[in-house]
Design goal:
Length: 249
């Protein structure tokens, strides 16, 4: 009869109880890093950056400039999609990644449920998500013909019938804002429209009434101002994002 062997089983280790910051579902020890590209050009990077800043969530930024050796060397390691932005919990490349702006906004809402990433009221939250999703998946004519270029001015450039339709829809959405921001306090929906507010300055698109007031409030918000200051300080010229630049002789 075969002898029965008993194995000494180790008791599973209890998960470490990590300190938690009030109102946050992320362990206090986990640092957040947002991987972004040029502040002058990268409108998708701008969105979670201004959201984190506006809602007072501490984070670090890691910038990989377009067409740079750093981008070519590191992008595959820090971005599952090969695009920016990417939010890392823990070290970029080895921590936990969330990519794509809408997913990042949702992840931040889960990590920081009391930080006003989305409005507290369920119906306002649904409307804010609708507005952000409409930006995320739409306004292609505007995005294509008027690429973000915070430091430049090209009044009148990029306008056509489809772009005018996008602008009319955005103006209607903004005109319904519960000022100062779309849903009162700065939330993810405002972050999604921040690069549109700067585009209207770059391309000389003039708005009226409350839509104009909302645009002003967005441009004057400390988070958008801080991002824009970084954009203006940049000197890199990325040809792909500069369809209206006059080539220097
Ligand atoms: N749907 C993505 C779009 C991200 C995106 O297109 N990012 C651009 C920068 S603004 C990018 O990484 N471009 C680099 C490339 O195309 O190689 C999001 O919402 O995050």
């Amino acid at each position: 009869m075969p002898s029965v062997q008993f194995q000494t089983l180790r008791r599973p280790r209890r998960p470490a109880i990590l300190p938690r910051i009030r109102g946050m579902n992320v362990p206090a020890a986990t640092s957040l890093t947002l991987v972004i590209a040029n502040k002058n050009y990268s409108s998708w990077s701008m969105r979670p950056w201004v959201l984190l800043r506006a809602r007072g969530v501490p984070f670090q930024e890691r910038m990989l400039k377009f067409e740079s050796p750093e981008w070519r060397e590191h992008i595959a390691q820090v971005s599952p999609s090969g695009l920016v932005p990417v939010l890392w919990e823990g070290d970029p490349g080895t921590g936990f990644a969330t990519w794509d702006t809408l997913a990042i906004a949702e992840r931040l809402h889960e990590l920081f449920p009391d930080r006003g990433i989305w409005p507290a009221d369920a119906r306002l939250r649904a409307q804010a998500r609708s507005a952000a999703a409409e930006m995320h998946s739409g306004f292609r004519a505007l995005r294509g013909a008027m690429p973000m270029n915070i430091r430049s001015r090209y009044p009148g450039k990029g306008m056509n019938a489809d772009v005018a339709k996008d602008i009319a829809r955005i103006s209607a959405l903004w005109a319904a804002a519960t000022l100062p921001y779309l849903f009162g306090e700065f939330c993810a929906a405002d972050a999604f429209y921040a690069p549109v507010a700067t585009r209207f300055v770059t391309y000389g698109v003039e708005l009226k009434g409350s839509a104009r007031e909302y645009q002003r409030a967005l441009l004057d918000s400390p988070a958008v101002k801080a991002w824009s200051a970084g954009a203006i300080a940049e000197t890199e010229f990325v040809a792909e994002d500069e369809p209206y630049a006059v080539p220097s002789r």
